[in-house]
Design goal:
Structural class: alpha/beta
Strand content: 5-15%
Helix content: 40-55%
Number of strands: 10
Distance between the termini: 71 Å
Bound molecules: S-adenosyl-L-homocysteine
Order of helices and strands: HHHEHHEEHHHHHHHEHEHEEHEHHEE
Shape: globular
Largest sheet: 7 strands, mixed
Strand order of the largest sheet: 6-5-4-7-8-10-9
Number of helices: 17
Radius of gyration: 22 Å
């Protein structure tokens, strides 16, 4: 009997979790960094990474079969263009994301997805008894890993491709993480000053000093439910609201509303849930939001309603940018 292609398709989807964890292990071991200099034998790589040579070979040949590495005979492996994205600290790298996504706190919570679907409530809280933010605040290394990893899922310049910030004096990035996006905007607009606002332990780890704009940018720690820095001409919230349920989103937006002057602008930068049967990336990020922070991805209309509920007039929506993010512009409703 001929094999049914539907079975092959379903089996590939079902076994996707194995690929995730295998790439995670290669990323943790830093295999791609070692392979930057050229092909190496599995024995060599095992020596460099303190792993069992025969087992490392099994890992690498599996990853070569899905295109992350290339097996060149003689148990030697080289990088493919896909595998190059696992090299650390390069523009476009996904290494921190690969380490984060296979981390136990993601792995275990995704393993309880069924509880989330049954109850409709945040899986992380069900598993760990606290919010993802409280959990990470007590684990500085994990928190820093998350901040770097989440920045890697976006392209630093994407927002600049679809939005013009040239008229703004002071730009406040609310929940700005590493500061990579703000640094990109400031680099493109030499007249502008920046304020990077995030939780105190997050801004303490900002990477502004690695950019050429540190002298024009202040880092401020705080809690956006309690308030955000005043005096900005533009306020940006990128991938912040998707972490929260509607009530919390409105509270965050109201904090921004209190801080903005009548002439300031608010920019929401988010993925959008689009039509049926398309854009698996956003629809699976939506499930990640259920599992981890306890938020959701939304449609254009849903974001419009949140803005209105917090006292903003929704304006034009630009996008998607190259990394699929859209930019909503809003003005304070007076
Ligand atoms: N804007 C960044 C980070 C998005 S992740 C980017 O696009 O990559 C969401 C951010 O919200 C995290 O950096 C997190 O530390 C921050 N955050 C969560 N709770 C917060 C709070 N109560 N006050 C301020 N920032 C908070």
């Amino acid at each position: 009997m001929a094999p049914e292609p539907q079975r092959a398709t379903l089996l590939k989807l079902l076994n996707g979790y194995q690929v995730t964890q295998a790439i995670h292990v290669a990323a943790v071991l830093g295999i791609a960094d070692v392979l930057q200099q050229g092909g190496r034998s599995a024995d060599d790589l095992a020596g460099e990474t303190g792993t069992d040579p025969r087992t490392l070979y099994r890992l690498l040949r599996a990853l070569a079969a899905v295109g992350v590495f290339r097996e060149e005979g003689d148990r030697t492996f080289a990088l493919t263009p896909v595998g190059e994205k696992l090299i650390a600290d390069r523009p476009g790298s996904l290494r921190d994301y690969a380490i984060f996504i296979g981390h136990e706190s993601n792995w275990i919570t995704w393993g309880s997805l069924l509880d989330g679907v049954r109850t409709g409530s945040n899986v992380f809280r069900q598993v760990y008894g606290k919010s993802v933010w409280e959990y990470r605040a007590a684990r500085p290394e994990l928190s820093a890993l998350f901040t770097r990893a989440t920045a890697q899922t976006k392209l630093a310049g994407s927002v600049l491709d679809i939005c013009d910030f040239s008229g703004f004096g002071t730009i406040v990035d609310v929940g700005g993480g590493t500061g990579a996006m703000l640094a990109g905007i400031l680099a493109a607009h030499p007249q502008a000053k920046g304020v990077l606002f995030d939780q105190p332990h997050v801004v303490a780890n900002n990477r502004l000093s690695e950019t050429g704009v540190a002298d024009r940018c202040r880092a401020v720690g705080g809690d956006f439910f309690a308030g955000v820095p005043e005096g900005g001409d533009a306020y940006i919230l990128r991938a912040v609201l998707h972490d929260w349920e509607d009530e919390d989103c409105v509270a965050i937006l109201k904090s921004c509303r209190k801080a903005v002057s009548d002439t300031a602008r608010l920019f929401l930068v988010e993925r959008l849930v689009g039509p049926p049967n398309d854009d698996a990336e956003t629809k699976f990020f939506d499930l990640t939001m259920l599992v981890n922070p306890g938020g959701r991805e939304r449609t254009r209309e849903e974001y419009g309603r949140l803005l209105e509920a917090a006292g903003f007039l929704p304006g034009p929506v630009a996008g998607p940018g190259p990394d699929r993010f859209y930019v909503f512009e809003a003005t304070p409703d007076s």
